[in-house]
Amino acid sequence: MATILETAADAGCFGTLLAAVDAAGLRNALEGTGPFTVLAPVDAAFAALPPSTVQTLVDNPPQLARILKYHVVSGARLQEELIRQPAWDSLEGAPIPIRCHEPFEVKNATVINANIVCDNGVVHVIDRVLLPG
Amino acid sequence: MISPSQHRWADVIHRLEAGGSMLPDSPNNLKQIIGIYKAYAVPMDFYWRDLLYIAEQVFLNPLPAFKYLLPQEYLDRPNSYAGPAGSPRIWRGEASAHPELLAFMAKGEMGAMPRLLHHLWHDRINMEFAEACMQAMFWHQGMGGRFNDYLDSEPYRANADRAIKAYFRRNPLMLGLYKLWPEMMLEKVKQLSYYANLGLFWEVMAPVFFEMSDLYDEGKLTSVPEAMDFLVNGIFAIAGRPIYHNVMIEGECFEIVPKSEGFTWLYEAALPYVEAVFYRTSPFRGTKSYNAQANQVPDQQADFHYGILYADLFPVGSAGIPPTLLMQDMVHFLPPYLKEDYSQHGRGESDVLIQLGVSFQRSMYNVTSAVIQALRAALLYPLDDTNPDHLKANRQFFEAQMDRFLRPEARLGEIQTAHYR
User: A4-126 architecture in CATH?
Assistant: First the structure.
């Protein structure tokens, strides 16, 4: 099996996310043993944000890291487990609400591909970038 | 796709759901809000520079008599979002202080005379208004974001302690006072961190408003929803800007709130600002007085409603956030088309401060609409979503926002009409 970042790289649709992980200096942490649950926005999700939103974050790594950590929950958690609670604390600190079970929706994002099991955790692919608040 | 809202402000909610603003779309509303954005941006160009000067350089000066006399270094300081080096470049103009601001600082209303005389005669930019906004943010606290929590943390106390001891290292009297009453000085440093917070917030808003004014003059901003959308895009573009507080002491930089804490413009500055200044602030003493014992002032800070969205505008220092100080600052920088508009309504020049105050109220309802739409986009669903459950969630959100305008003091009803001036 591959790690979370290797799996994302192989998929070919997470270029922005992987670049952001590097810019924020989170690569080492996400290559660790974890385990983590990563809600991974596809490239189209980042592209849908208004112009300059991503660039301002990339220019400021601590602020970018904060937004990225909002996409990570500690532990390897499959969909069946996630839907048992109304919300999960992210590594950023703010909770991520589970709004709908069928279709599976995390906050205002829809999970388009759930339960991708990796060496150091689980990836759920989402169609929007999550923002705390 | 979902049934009409039954809310008292249903018309406004339906307009928001259609991508509009709380302010109706009309050429005159657009003219008023853009003109006032420009008139606001010029003094704001002074406010943000001076707020950062006070936070970074004046710091704990026990006699800060000259804190409003901005040194050249801060007038030249490039705005991070204007000029060729702006990233992103929001305003196509220059990054140093605005030419109209410099012209006003040189002459004021009284004509050319030494800067100190302008200051003492109060013929100057009213920084007291900026400080009132800062104090509203400092006093209300706990309005979202993590800035305020950080000010109570051990790392912050340690950072502040280092800066206080360095600042007073040649002043045994102040160091002695610090030893006796450490909390007093720490509280002052916390307030200075809010100076930095608000300065960094307004450093963004000034070029946003200048650019909107230029686009309007070029005929490229043609409706109220377009003006709101420009603000929404601006909010997202700058959302991740760091909020921090650095102090310069004898050439050495002390990080009191480091950038590495990850505080952002949106969460730690913009949203607390809107809550503290647009909605809450505090009852001003003036022609309108309040009797707290008769429950005329709410006992919960969250219920305070003395901001611009509720203000009953009077010509002298009174209720609402744009007291005379801000109106007086803006009247110096009105674009010609707005001066002409005001001369044709009301009592012409003799009530121009009220007319521009009402325009300011309209313009801030539009800014608040942009914040509401930005929050909806960030936390909920697109307006053209096809899932009825998502549209219901958006509806609930808009209705909850409009609940804040159910109290009789809200001016949402007035700004729906053209004759409210």
Answer: Roll (2.30)
Give me the long-range contacts of B78-86 (CB less than 8 A, separation at least 24). B79/B45, B79/B203, B79/B206, B79/B207, B80/B203, B80/B204, B80/B241, B81/B203, B81/B204, B81/B207, B81/B208, B81/B238, B82/B206, B82/B207, B82/B210, B86/B207
**In this predicted complex, what is the ipTM?**
0.95
> Which of A114, A18, A14, A30 has its CA nearest to residue A74?
A30
Chain B residues whose CB is inside 8 A of the A131 CB are 378-379
Tell me how far apart the alpha carbons of residues B146 and B151 are, in angstroms, rounded to a whole number.
9
Per-10-residue mean pLDDT, chain B, length 421: 95 98 98 98 98 98 95 98 95 98 94 90 92 93 91 98 97 97 97 98 98 98 98 96 97 97 96 94 67 84 89 62 80 96 86 92 97 96 96 98 95 95 89
Ranges of each domain in chain A = 4-126
B389 close contact with A: CB closer than 8 A: yes
Instruction: Inform me whether the C-beta atom of residue A12 falls under 8 Å from chain B C-beta atoms.
Output: no
Minimal Cα–Cα distance from B208 to chain A, Å? 14
Token pair in block for residue A97 = 């609400």
Q: Which residue in this structure is represented by tokens 């400021």? A: A60
Which residue do the tokens 């796709």 mark?
B1
**B256 to each of B161, B164, B185, B309, how far by Cα in Å?**
9, 10, 14, 34
